[in-house]
Amino acid sequence: RAATEMGTSTTTGDGGMTEEERQSSKTLVYQVLPSRYGMNPDDLRRGDAIEVVVGQGAKPGGGGMLLGQKITKRVAGMRALPQGIDQRSASRHPDWTGPDDLAIKIRELREITDWEKPIYVKIGATRTSYDVALAVKAGADVVVLDGMQGGTGATQDVFLEHVGIPTLPAVRLAVEALEELDMHREVQLIVSGGIRTGADVAKALAMGADAVSIGTAALVALGCNKAVHIEDYQALGTEPGYCHHCHTGLCPVGITTQVPELEERLPPEHGARLLKNYLTTMVLEAQTLARACGKSHLHNLEPEDLVALTIEAAAMAGVPLAGTDWIPGRGAT
Question: Which domains does the chain have, with CATH numbers?
Answer without folding.
Answer: 2-214+295-317 (3.20.20.70)
